[in-house]
Amino acid sequence: MTDEHKVPFRWTFYIGKDGKILFIDDKVQVNSHGMDVTAKLKELGLAK
């Protein structure tokens, strides 16, 4: 959070079963986040 940005930044971390970070989404859009997560999980080849 900055003085100019009055709300916290939202980031999503995609973590593999081995504990390694697979991807960090630092441009989360709250209106479409559920669909964005679903698409990223498919892109990463992770199970449903």
Task: Offer a few descriptive terms.
48 residues; alpha+beta; two-stranded antiparallel ribbon; 1 helix; 23% helix; flat
Shape: flat
Order of helices and strands: EEH
Oligomer: single chain
Tally of distinct domains: 1
Give the number of helices: 1
Strand order of the largest sheet: 1-2
Structural class: alpha+beta
Task: Specify Rg, calculated over alpha carbons.
Answer: 13 Å
Share of β-strand residues: 15-25%
Number of strands: 2
* Spatial gap, N to C terminus: 33 Å
Q: Roughly what percent helix?
A: 10-25%
How is the secondary structure organized here?
Elements: E1 12-15, E2 21-25, H1 33-43
Antiparallel strand pairs: 1-2
Structure notes:
This protein is of the alpha+beta class. It has one domain (1-48). The chain has 1 helix and 2 strands. The chain has one helix spanning 33-43, and strands at 12-15, 21-25. A two-stranded antiparallel sheet has the order 1-2. A hairpin with a 5-residue loop joins strand 1 (12-15) and strand 2 (21-25). The model has no long low-confidence stretch (mean pLDDT 89).
